[in-house]
Write a sequence for this structure.
């Protein structure tokens, strides 16, 4: 069922990925979770808390999200190896840390589209963009 990197995907795999999402992303997610599981308890707890936050408010989806989570694992693996205290990673305001962290990643397609739709609707309501209706889909 696996295909080489240069092999075209079978119709079955294309259909399956259409329904379930990228199989490569699922494999990358499992590898990320395995890395997190290997962290010392306090680092793992912090990463899992960040993960929950990022799942709700994170800016990325698909490959962008995987890059973000991969970088998160890198950060905490290195911090654990260096013995960096959790509070030194986050500083006094964990929300400021996570917001700054998220700012380094592109918006997911859905969120970017909704942000655009929202700002366009407000512009129209404020009379700043007359005659333009929100037709973004």
């Amino acid at each position: 069922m696996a295909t080489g990197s240069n092999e075209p995907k079978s119709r079955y795999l294309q259909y399956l990925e259409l329904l379930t999402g990228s199989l490569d992303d699922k494999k990358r997610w499992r590898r990320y979770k395995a890395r997190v599981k290997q962290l010392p308890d306090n680092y793992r707890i912090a990463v899992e808390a960040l993960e929950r936050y990022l799942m709700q408010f994170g800016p990325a989806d698909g490959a962008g999200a995987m890059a973000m989570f991969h970088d998160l694992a890198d950060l905490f693996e290195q911090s654990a190896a260096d013995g960096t205290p959790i509070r030194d990673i986050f500083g006094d305001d964990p929300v400021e840390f996570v917001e700054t962290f998220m700012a380094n990643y592109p918006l997911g397609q859905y969120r970017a589209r909704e942000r655009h739709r929202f700002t366009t609707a407000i512009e129209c309501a404020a009379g700043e963009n007359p005659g333009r209706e929100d037709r973004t889909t």
Q: What stands out?
A: The chain has seven helices and no strands.
